Amino acid sequence: MKRRDVVILGSTGSIGTQALDLVRANPDRFRVVGLTAGGSNPELFDTQVKEFAPAYSGLGEDASVEAAGMAADVVLNGITGAVGLRPTLAALDAGTTLALANKESLIMGGEAVTRRAKPGQIVPVDSEHSAIAQCLRSGEQREVRKLVLTASGGPFRGRTRDELTQVTVAEALNHPTWAMGPVITINSATLVNKGLEVIEAHLLFDVPFDDIEVTVHPTSVVHSMVEFVDGSTIAQASPPTMHIPIALGMAWPERVPHAAASVDWTKAHTWQFFPLDDDAFPAVRLAREAGARGRTAPAVYNAANEVAVQAFRDEQIGFVDILTVVEDTLTVHDVGSNAQPMEVDDVLAADTWARSEASRRVQALAAERETQH
Ligand SMILES: NC(=O)C1=CN([C@@H]2O[C@H](COP(=O)(O)OP(=O)(O)OC[C@H]3O[C@@H](n4cnc5c(N)ncnc54)[C@H](OP(=O)(O)O)[C@@H]3O)[C@@H](O)[C@H]2O)C=CC1
Ligand SMILES: CC(=O)[C@@H](O)[C@H](O)COP(=O)(O)O
Ligand SMILES: [Mn+2]
């Protein structure tokens, strides 16, 4: 494989540092030409810049947009949150392959993002979507009956809605199988991450929402599956590690030898799958509803969730309040008319509106909580 010039956005985060591990281990395959981060960990960023000596480095959203637009083979977007949208668009507009971990930009942007992408330009890095892309490599899209996304169930799997009212931030940050940044870890605990991933799968693979299922698989070894029309199911499995999807994202369609350890088939394993408890965890149902409404509804789902997650981390609201904020914000959102295609400006306006509406609801819930204590 010809060595690939890679831009890494969000280099100091969980995805970014693991991508740099892979670059370090495969200098013949990858060269870092751009690095950006948010600025909350300047020491680590400086160390990375010294080690990898990229042609471009910078902190913040504008620097990420600039880096995403530079000449490169691959842009890995490992930024967290809606702030990743402009860099995603910059990479697509530059015609560069986009290895996409920042699912939020695709989900909020919807067709305003997908119509800017050439076929195959977006390579999913999210483990479930990487798994599905791998399962689909040898198949025809018309042979697909359904996609099955696996969910770990998070740290609160098996709890009732009542039990969830008392959980703490520290407990929510204690993911059973993955070590990830704080926002996605909380999203895994609420199952919002899986809701986002259902919309992400719909956008990436053009499969109707009714044909995308979620199954709870507590050990996160099977990363997702595709069921075909003849009743056959192909699954992708490995011990939980992001090294495989990140390596595939940067080297697609090639596999990077020894990117990670494989399943040890000399040992006994039990793979379990359970139905999702939609009453305790309404996030996937709400995401399906937002996805079915379309247009700006997924952007509102994401923005309201980002506001609510921050408020939960700041201990302003409780854990179950996160989904209350998301649901109530979606209920009062008007997605507008389908007469015109949705543009990026519509998405940004919906994002801004949802943040303000969700913040208002957070304040109300926080005040209510205050009077109860
Ligand atoms: N971690 C994982 O295993 C997985 C992550 N993902 C997705 O990947 C993305 C990244 O997740 P993760 O790595 O866990 O998150 P982290 O919180 O660990 O890292 C986020 C990165 O984004 C950077 N960042 C924040 N704001 C900006 C900004 N304005 N401009 C540029 N960079 C910014 C941060 O920089 P700094 O902290 O230095 O300010 C940091 O480098 C998310 O969308 C997540 O959903 C998907 C599947 C798995
Ligand atoms: C590693 C990855 O892709 C995460 O998105 C992961 O799926 C989170 O785990 P949950 O299955 O708990 O959401
Ligand atoms: Mn995932």
From TrEMBL:
Catalysed transformations (reactions): 2-C-methyl-D-erythritol 4-phosphate + NADP(+) = 1-deoxy-D-xylulose 5-phosphate + NADPH + H(+)
- Quote the record's binding site residues for NADPH: 12-15, 38, 41, 102, 104, 181
An example Pfam family from this entry, by short name, is DXP_reductoisom
* Residues bound to Mn(2+): 126, 128, 197
Keyword Lyase assigned to the entry: answer is no
Which residues are involved in binding 1-deoxy-D-xylulose 5-phosphate? 103, 127-128, 152, 175, 188, 193-194, 197
State its Enzyme Commission number(s).
1.1.1.267
Keywords, comma-separated and alphabetical: Isoprene biosynthesis, Magnesium, Manganese, Metal-binding, NADP, Oxidoreductase
- What residue stretches are annotated with the DXP reductoisomerase C-terminal domain? 238-356
Domain 1-deoxy-D-xylulose 5-phosphate reductoisomerase C-terminal spans what residues? 122-205
* Pathway field: Isoprenoid biosynthesis; isopentenyl diphosphate biosynthesis via DXP pathway; isopentenyl diphosphate from 1-deoxy-D-xylulose 5-phosphate: step 1/6
InterPro entries, sorted: DXP_reductoisomerase, DXP_reductoisomerase_C, DXP_reductoisomerase_N, DXPR_C, DXPR_C_sf, NAD(P)-bd_dom_sf
The yes or no answer to whether the keyword ATP-binding is present is no
Q: Which residues form a coiled coil?
A: none
Taking every annotated instance into account, which residue ranges of this chain make up the domain 1-deoxy-D-xylulose 5-phosphate reductoisomerase N-terminal?
6-62
Q: Which cofactor does it need?
A: Mg(2+); Mn(2+)
- Give, as one word, the top-level EC class: oxidoreductase
Q: State the family it belongs to.
A: Belongs to the DXR family.
- What is this protein called in UniProt? 1-deoxy-D-xylulose 5-phosphate reductoisomerase
Taxonomy of the source species: Bacteria, Bacillati, Actinomycetota, Actinomycetes, Propionibacteriales
